[in-house]
Amino acid sequence: MTTHHQARKGRGPAAAPRPDGRGRAREQLAYLPYLIPGLLLFAGVIGVPFLMNVGTSFTDWSGVGSPSWAGLDNYRELVKDGEFWASFRHNVLVIIGMAIVPTAIGLVLAAALTDLIDRHFGPRTAAVLRACLYLPQVLPVVIAGVVWSWLLAPDKGAVNTLLKDVGLGSLAHDWLGDPSTALWSVLGVMVWMQIGFPLVVFMSGLQRVDPSLYEAAEIDGATWARRFWHITIPQIRPEIFVVLLWTTIAALKAFPQIFVLTKGGPGGATNVPSYYSYVNFFEKSDVGYGSAIATVLTLVIIALTVVFLRLQGRDLGEER
Amino acid sequence: MTATMTKPSAPARERRGAARGKRRRGPSAYAVLVALAALAGIMLIPFLVVVFNALKTPQEYTSKGPLAPPSGFNFDAIRDFWDRVDFGHVLLNSVLISGSVAVLAVLLSVFNAYALGIGRIKGRIWVLALLLLANTLPQEALVYPLYYLAKQFGIYDTRLSVIIVFTVVQSAFGTYLLSSVMSAFPRPLLEAARIDGANRWQVLWRVVVPVVRPTLSVLLVFFFVWTWNEFLIPMVFLISNENQTVSVALGVLQGQRLMDATMSSAAALLGLLPTVVFFLVFQRTLSRGLTAGAIK
Question: How many domains are there within chain B?
Answer without folding.
Answer: 1
